[in-house]
């Protein structure tokens, strides 16, 4: 593992095996410099164990950056359960997994991610306090997607302002790819702000509903990224921003909720060189983790969550302005900002320890 390209001096990586329940899982804690490593539990049918370790390493590192940029006192962690979500999530397996999380004594806090449900997190909460995103209890945070959508909306307004000098969205053409929990709410807010919508989803009835409720133009998902529009908002799958997109799409602003939008890391520079303003996904889609983090803190405060989500707009403006001042890709600037916060906290921690 130490020789894998995705290994980035992760503090701790735990492989979990429970033959009785069939559980196989990996918990990766990338950094606890800012606080416990918080990040989702993913259940996925990986080809093999090494693929699962690689994903846990990559995703936990991403959470360190996301949580740092969101201004949370949390580090980065992520866990993966190996197997088909239809069969690998038996109550016995989830309980065994929750016990493994519990043994880390709070250095990792899990939450819902791909292949998992809120009911799974509820079940694990009976075994360990170190999961968040439950549906019940005094500090339950509930559905994170409205917070994610709001953060993306604010990041999008900041991006439009950076590009055009005003954040007035009236008549701004925005292409929303994916009308799921986040994409739909984002489309709703954009419509309310006077934007003209283009929408794409493999779920056709959703697009038909968007056409009727928001007057949206329906576009084929493969064509949407290349349409004439002001903003492209990827809210479905990752990997949509390719070199081809950077070089040939007419759109100049990209801001959406989907995780890991860059098909390869070099696309960050390619977008910048092509004159495209890309609001880094892990910066603008942090509303959900901000909401879950409030639950993890033990006292859910809706007002404080709202204030923190609003900071996403300010941080986006800061990153885009810095990128312009330094003539540097936006993803590189966001990474540097996150690393600076971690380095400061690390220095303070070292000073406090004497
Ligand atoms: P979702 O599953 O509710 O919605 C995804 C939508 O995308 C669905 O309507 C689906 O039909 C559509 N879709 C799938 N493949 C498509 C394709 N090839 N072309 C067009 N549409 C396609 O998911 P969500 O919760 O809305 O999350 C959307 C994205 O945002 C994901 O990448 C997710 O990881 C990311 N994200 C979500 C949250 C959150 O709070 N839910 C937080 C951070 C990041």
Written overview of the protein:
By secondary structure, this protein is α/β, with parallel strands linked by helices. It has 12 helices and 11 strands. The protein folds into 2 domains: 12-60 and 76-125, Leucine Dehydrogenase, chain A, domain 1 (Rossmann fold, 3-Layer(aba) Sandwich); 145-286 and 314-338, NAD(P)-binding Rossmann-like Domain (Rossmann fold, 3-Layer(aba) Sandwich), CATH 3.40.50. Strands 8-7-6-9-10-11 form a 6-stranded parallel beta sheet, with helices on both faces. Strands 1-2-4-3-5 form a 5-stranded mixed beta sheet, sandwiched between helices. Strand 3 (37-44), helix 1 and strand 4 (75-82) form a beta-alpha-beta unit. Helix 4 (145-164) crosses helix 10. It is globular, with a radius of gyration of 20 Å. The chain starts with 11 loop residues before the first strand and ends with a helix. The chain binds nicotinamide-adenine-dinucleotide (NAD). Nicotinamide-adenine-dinucleotide is lined by residues 144-145, 148, 177-183, 200-203, 206, 221, 235-237, 257-259, 285, 288.
């Amino acid at each position: 593992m130490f020789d894998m390209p995705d290994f980035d001096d992760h503090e701790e990586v735990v492989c979990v095996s429970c033959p009785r329940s069939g559980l196989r899982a990996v918990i990766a804690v990338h950094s606890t410099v800012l606080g416990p490593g918080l990040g989702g539990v993913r259940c996925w049918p990986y080809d093999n164990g090494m693929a699962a370790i690689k994903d846990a390493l990559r995703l936990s590192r991403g959470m360190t950056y996301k949580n740092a940029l969101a201004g949370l006192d949390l580090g980065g962690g992520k866990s993966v359960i190996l197997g088909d979500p239809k069969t690998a999530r038996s109550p016995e397996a989830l309980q065994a997994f929750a016990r493994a999380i519990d043994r880390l004594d709070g250095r990792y806090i899990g939450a819902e991610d791909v292949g998992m449900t809120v009911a799974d997190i509820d079940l694990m909460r009976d075994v360990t306090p170190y999961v968040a995103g439950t549906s019940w209890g005094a500090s339950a945070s509930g559905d994170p997607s409205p917070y994610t959508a709001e953060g993306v909306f604010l990041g999008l307004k900041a991006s439009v302002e950076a590009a055009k000098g005003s954040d007035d969205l009236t008549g701004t053409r925005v292409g929303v790819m994916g009308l799921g929990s986040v994409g739909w709410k984002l489309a709703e807010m954009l419509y309310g702000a006077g934007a003209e919508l283009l929408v794409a989803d493999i779920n056709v009835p959703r697009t038909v509903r968007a056409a009727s409720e928001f007057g949206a133009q329906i576009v084929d998902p493969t064509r949407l990224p290349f349409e004439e529009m002001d903003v492209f908002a990827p809210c479905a799958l990752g990997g949509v921003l390719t070199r081809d997109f950077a070089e040939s799409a007419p759109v100049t602003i990209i801001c959406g909720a989907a995780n890991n939008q860059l098909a390869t890391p070099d696309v960050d520079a390619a977008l910048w060189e092509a004159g495209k303003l890309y609001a880094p996904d892990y910066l603008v889609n942090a509303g959900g983790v901000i909401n879950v983090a409030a639950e993890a803190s033990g006292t859910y405060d809706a007002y404080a969550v709202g204030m923190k989500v609003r900071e996403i707009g300010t941080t986006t403006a800061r990153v885009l302005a810095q990128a312009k001042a330094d003539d540097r890709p936006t993803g590189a600037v966001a990474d540097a900002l996150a690393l600076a916060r971690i380095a400061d906290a690390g220095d303070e921690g070292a000073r406090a320890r004497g």
